[in-house]
Write a structure and sequence with these properties.
There is one protein chain. The chain is α/β, with parallel strands linked by helices. It has 10 helices and 9 strands. The strands form 2 sheets. A 6-stranded mixed β-sheet has the order 1-2-3-4-6-9, sandwiched between helices. It has a 3-stranded mixed β-sheet with strand order 5-7-8. Helix 1 packs parallel to helix 2 and helix 4 packs across helix 5. Bound molecules: ligand LCXROUX7. The site of ligand LCXROUX7 has 28 residues, from helix 9 and helix 10. Homotrimer. Keywords: Acetylation, Fatty acid metabolism, Isomerase, Lipid metabolism, Mitochondrion, Transit peptide.
């Protein structure tokens, strides 16, 4: 029923939907050419299989409306953009669920990174690991100036490594040496530090959402043909690299996660999170 509605009517607020069909995101339209996709999976917007699948299918629905030119990705939680992958998906999982989960993450990345829409990440809160992946997949990133916030790839801190395509995305964003340092140290950057290395494009003292809408409208004024061709030129290589290695990447991920040593690391990390 829901999928037959026009994307414009698809404001999937939890207030309107029963929990059984909750879509984990809210979609709104601040202007005729701009859509906002708000992550809404309390407590920390972590990316479970269902969450990743929902975001991907909403991006595709929004994309199918030719009037919409820009998409803002943001969070219903003012303190947390996204805590990244749902770590519980990687803790003692079945191999089948784990590979389906990883496919949903690959698909979310490919969809967001190569969409015809101009994408603005509106980062009001923490954005570690998979949260940083979502932000880096967008065309432009605005972040609140709050020095307590962190953005970056902290996988090594969990005893895991970023997959090759996330490493490549990071290298493309911040350059080789900074990426190597940031990845191996599992560094989370403050907004000021992130701005300095090009991990975010702008930091905002006041209402970051208003700035994101302004930028989305600016992008929407640029002729679509030029912007889509440019995006394809800049991003095509990484998209093709991953598309050509989907199965290999699923194999690496499942083997790596299912190793006993990795499982112990994940268990310990989960404990440390819930003890806080
Ligand atoms: C050479 C071969 C290479 C092969 C490579 C192949 C494959 C690659 C292998 C692996 C790649 C996998 C990539 C992973 C990327 C990821 O995204 S991993 C996730 C990383 N995320 C984090 O580390 C963030 C952890 N969370 C936090 O730091 C904090 O929660 C926060 C976001 C800063 C918020 O803090 P706050 O104090 O507000 O909240 P709490 O910490 O109290 O959390 C509330 C609640 O939520 C639970 N939780 C937090 N984060 C997650 C999460 N990511 N997943 C699941 N659950 C999470 C937390 O445990 C609390 O739960 P509660 O105690 O039950 O209330």
């Amino acid at each position: 029923m829901l999928s037959r509605l026009s994307p414009r009517l698809l404001s999937s607020s939890p207030r309107l939907l029963s929990s059984s069909i909750r879509t984990l995101v809210n979609v709104t339209y601040p202007s005729p050419s701009v859509a906002v996709l708000e992550l809404d999976r309390p407590p920390v917007n972590s990316l479970s299989l269902e969450m990743a699948t929902s975001i991907t299918s909403h991006i595709k629905q929004i994309e199918s409306d030719p009037q919409i030119r820009s998409l803002i990705l943001t969070s219903s939680n003012p303190k947390i953009f996204s805590a990244g992958l749902d770590i519980t998906e990687m803790s003692r999982p079945s191999k089948t669920r784990l590979s389906t989960f990883w496919r949903s993450i690959q698909s979310l990345f490919l969809t967001l990174y190569s969409t015809r829409l101009s994408t603005i990440s509106c980062i009001t809160g923490h954005s570690p690991a998979g949260g940083c992946l979502l932000s880096m997949s967008c065309d432009y990133r605005v972040m609140s100036r709050n020095p307590k916030l962190g953005i970056g790839l902290n996988e090594t801190r969990l005893g895991i490594a970023a997959p090759f395509w996330l490493k490549d995305l990071f290298v493309k964003t911040v350059g080789y040496r900074e990426a190597e340092l940031g990845l191996s140290r599992g560094k989370l950057y403050s907004p000021e530090e992130a701005l300095k290395i090009g991990l975010v494009d702008e930091i905002v003292d006041g209402e970051v959402y208003d700035v994101a809408v302004e930028r989305a409208e600016e992008y929407a004024e640029i002729p679509e043909k030029g912007i889509v061709a440019t995006k394809r030129m800049c991003r095509g290589e990484l998209v093709r690299d991953l598309e050509g290695k989907i199965e290999e990447d699923v194999g690496w991920f499942t083997d790596f996660i299912l190793e006993e040593g990795t499982q112990k690391g994940i268990e310990g990390y989960l404990k440390s999170l819930s003890k806080k």
